[in-house]
Amino acid sequence: MLELKYSSHQYEAGTDEAGRGCLSGPVVAAAVILPDHFEHELLNDSKQLSDKKRRYLRPIIEKEALAFGVAFVYQDKIDQINILNASILAMHKSIEAMAISPEFIVVDGNRFKDYFSIPHQTIVKGDGKFLNIAAASILAKTYRDDYMEKIHDDFPVYNWARNKGYPTEEHRMALKEFGSCLHHRKSFRLLPDQLKLDL
Question: What dotted CATH number matches 12-149?
């Protein structure tokens, strides 16, 4: 069973991001403050859940949360400031989007930058340990999936509806055949370097 939260603060926000390892599209972060009585038997790290379960849980989280925020940082900004800084920026923006300012922040992973003077704690694999981070992981993942499915219609050759922009073999083959588009992260190595011999 996941614990509700890390600290004794009433307004502890859990935050997480989705899309960090993708070749295209934004990195999306969410922040969630859950009430002290919150529990749900299905709620877990979004990577452990099916798409159907994530989509079932999203409206429950949004309805039950004391506050939540979701934020997108797009590929141009990722290329400008790098993916780690973009992920942290997205988390900051998601916290800023909440109707309640948190007293404490718990972050999935091991890297974060101070958000004003609010104390924080990074937790490796935190989305599998604390409900507020797990809830944030579900919101971040489902909002990003929705976005990738929407832009898939404009660029169906990459099949983002299925691979969501991750470096799958299908995505890399499409990059090899059609090149990149405006949604790709130009600072990422889109295709592995290949040895060429001029014979």
Answer: 3.30.420.10
